Amino acid sequence: MQVLYFAWLRERVGSAAEQIDPGDARTARELVERLKASDPRYATAFADLAAVRVAVDQEMADLDAPIAGARELAFFPPVTGG
Q1: CA distances to 4, 14, 29, 36, 47 from 58, in Å
Q2: What is the Cα–Cα distance from 33 to 4, expressed in whole angstroms?
Q3: What's the CA gap between 10 and 76, in Å, rounded?
Q4: 78 near 51, Cβ under 8 Å?
Q5: What is the pLDDT of residues 40-67, one digit of tens each?
Q6: Is 0.90 topped by the overall pTM?
Q7: Is 71 helix (H, G, I), strand (E, B) or coil?
Q8: CA-CA distance, 25 to 32, in Å (whole number)?
Q9: Which label site among 1, 19, 25, 57 has the fewest CB atoms less than 10 Å from its CB?
Q10: What is the dihedral sign for C-alpha 13, 16, 20, 26?
Q11: φ and ψ at 32, to 5 degrees?
């Protein structure tokens, strides 16, 4: 699965995109928890999940949305307008 990171998440992870095998993760939240446990970069990037939004296959979703069959996840901070 292609995983994309935007804004400060990209800076903290150190990459704009990467291919990740979701393994047995059923939701975006489960994938994030697995990533956080695997490397301190992810633990730092995802320290405050209230400040993280996700899109599954370019559709806004909740972190508890299922990811089975998804081709792309994108993580980004909340967007504000002006």
Answers
A1: 11, 22, 17, 23, 23
A2: 16
A3: 8
A4: yes
A5: 999 999 999 999 999 999 999 999 999 9
A6: yes
A7: coil
A8: 9
A9: 19
A10: positive
A11: -60, -45
68 contact partners, CB below 8 Å, separation of at least 6: 26
Yes or no: say if 3 and 71 are a contact pair by the CB < 8 Å rule: no
Amino acid found at 61:
A
Q: Is the pLDDT of residue 17 over 70?
A: yes
Map tokens 């990811």 to a residue.
67
Sign of the torsion formed by the C-alpha atoms of 17, 66, 24 and 33: positive
> Is the pLDDT at 27 greater than 90, yes or no?
yes
**DSSP E strand stretches across 33-71:** 53-56, 59-61
Count CA within 13 A, CB hemisphere, residue 70.
29
Max CA separation in the chain (angstroms):
40
